[in-house]
């Protein structure tokens, strides 16, 4: 609506088409005693989103003052609430050529016709609009109608005119999308994006579009080179948000085919963060993941990193008993100030399985089950704890839930089930 109702951002640099040189027809207005009161009521209705009231008030103001600014307000709000029939009716009824508001009223009229599927009439009036008011907003409005009507070359030409005026990245998105997907000028669309990015910087949305074009044409080397350049651009600009999004894209496009290349690139550029950590996990490099978690914890004091470190320490050690003290200490430090059902269950299982503190383990796993009462892993921990406490009946009930749900293919599940079945209180 800001586009339809606003001023044109740029016009062609031609003395015959310069809107600023147009002499508009003056519309004679009428005095209206209640004008100020109606304006206040109309503005308040807008603020309260009482749009029906607002349109009635603005139309009343227009009828009583003949001030076309009020008609524009009426038509704009009617467009917002999708009352396109009214926009069409009153735009046509009250249209006066060459008045100051003519351009905006024509835009709203064209848009209403477009939404009412009267495309032929919308295109006809749209052509008249851009003949008189040559600017990017009008080119894009008419271009959008041609695009909807699948007249792709005409749509492209109009968006191209708009882009020449503004060099706007959003206009270029539509322009290159038409060129690539509808006109099938794929390499030309890529070149247009590359040139814009080289001159104006790595607009993120344009970069995403260019990456998608590279991907569709299977231009992998270009894609990777572009991603690396994009990475360095955002790193040098210190835009951490877009740098992180770029790293995610890098992983998406590179790591799926060559995870080691993605890891090498992040390591070489000292990007020690969650992205690199996830790649270590996916590529089964627990030692590197553990070391990175240690650095992340030291730098951030984030207890989640400490808990993950405890898990890796336990999982990657063959002699589990040798690390129990350190692993338990880490989990206990985490759970002193935070409540996390995953870590509660993990610690519970260690305490129960190694007969360190079965009662405390049961307390922890029951706490975890309050959050996820149907979690099979947690129920297994509970059953194993009840077994260790010789509560055989309860252990059997809980373990049967696990076996009925997932069977006994898992080694630990099968071991627990066999021992619990033999349990005697």
Question: Could you outline the blueprint of secondary structure elements for this entry?
Answer:
Layout: H1 2-5, H2 35-47, H3 51-65, H4 68-80, H5 84-94, H6 102-115, H7 119-132, H8 136-148, H9 152-166, H10 169-182, H11 186-200, H12 204-216, H13 220-237, H14 240-255, H15 259-268, H16 274-282, H17 286-300, H18 303-315, H19 324-337, H20 341-353, H21 358-371, H22 376-388, H23 392-406, H24 411-421
Question: How would you portray this structure in words?
Answer:
- The protein has 425 residues and is mainly alpha-helical.
- Among the domains are: 149 residues, Serine Threonine Protein Phosphatase 5, Tetratricopeptide repeat (Alpha Horseshoe), CATH 1.25.40; 50 residues, no CATH class; 52 residues, no CATH class.
- Helix content is 74%, strand content 0%.
- It contains 24 helices and no strands.
- Helix 11 runs antiparallel to helix 12.
- It is elongated, with a radius of gyration of 34 Å.
- The chain starts with a helix and ends with a helix.
- About 2% of the residues have low confidence.
The profile of the biggest β sheet is: none
Tell me what portion of residues adopts beta-strand conformation: under 5%
Q: What's the level 1 CATH class of the domain at 1-149?
A: Mainly Alpha
Distance between the termini: 75 Å
Determine the mean pLDDT.
91
Structural class per helix/strand content? mainly alpha
Uncertain residue segments? 11-17
Helix content: over 70%
Number of beta strands: 0
What is the overall number of helices?
24
Gross morphology is elongated
CATH fold descriptor of the domain at 1-149 = Serine Threonine Protein Phosphatase 5, Tetratricopeptide repeat
């Amino acid at each position: 609506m800001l586009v339809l109702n606003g001023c044109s951002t740029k016009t062609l640099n031609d003395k015959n088409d310069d809107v600023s040189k147009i002499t508009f027809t003056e519309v004679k207005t009428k005095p209206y005693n209640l004008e100020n009161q109606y304006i206040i009521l109309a503005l308040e209705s807008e603020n309260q989103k009482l749009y029906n009231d607002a349109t009635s008030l603005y139309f009343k103001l227009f009828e009583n003052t003949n001030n076309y600014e009020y008609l524009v307000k009426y038509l704009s709000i009617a467009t917002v609430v999708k009352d396109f029939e009214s926009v069409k009716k009153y735009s046509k009824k009250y249209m006066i050529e060459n008045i100051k508001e003519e351009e905006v009223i024509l835009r709203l009229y064209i848009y209403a016709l477009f939404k009412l599927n009267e495309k032929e009439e919308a295109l006809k009036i749209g052509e008249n609009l851009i003949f008189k008011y040559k600017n990017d907003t009008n080119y894009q409005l008419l271009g959008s109608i041609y695009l909807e009507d699948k007249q792709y070359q005409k749509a492209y030409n109009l968006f191209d005119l708009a882009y020449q005026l503004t060099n706007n990245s959003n206009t270029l998105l539509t322009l290159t999308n038409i060129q690539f997907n509808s006109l099938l000028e794929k390499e030309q669309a890529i070149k247009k994006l590359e040139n814009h990015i080289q001159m104006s910087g790595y607009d993120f949305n344009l970069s995403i579009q260019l990456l998608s074009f590279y991907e569709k044409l299977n231009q992998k080397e270009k894609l990777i080179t572009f991603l690396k350049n994009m990475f360095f651009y955002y790193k040098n600009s210190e835009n951490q948000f877009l740098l992180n999004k770029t790293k995610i894209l890098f992983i998406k496009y590179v790591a799926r085919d060559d995870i080691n290349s993605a890891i090498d690139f992040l390591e070489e550029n000292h990007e020690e963060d969650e992205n690199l950590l996830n790649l270590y996990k996916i590529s089964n490099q627990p030692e590197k993941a553990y070391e990175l978690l240690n650095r992340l914890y030291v730098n951030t004091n984030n207890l989640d990193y400490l808990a993950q470190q405890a898990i890796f320490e336990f999982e990657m050690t063959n002699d589990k008993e040798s690390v129990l003290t350190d692993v338990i200490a880490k989990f206990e430090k985490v759970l002193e100030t935070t409540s996390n059902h995953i870590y509660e269950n993990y610690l519970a299982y260690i305490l129960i399985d190694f007969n360190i503190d079965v009662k405390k383990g049961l307390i922890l796993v029951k706490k975890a089950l309050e959050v996820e009462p149907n979690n099979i892993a947690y129920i297994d921990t509970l059953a194993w704890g009840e077994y260790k406490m010789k509560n055989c009946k309860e252990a059997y009930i809980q373990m049967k839930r696990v076996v009925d749900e997932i069977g006994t293919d898992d080694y630990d599940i099968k071991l627990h089930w066999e021992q619990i079945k033999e349990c005697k209180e």
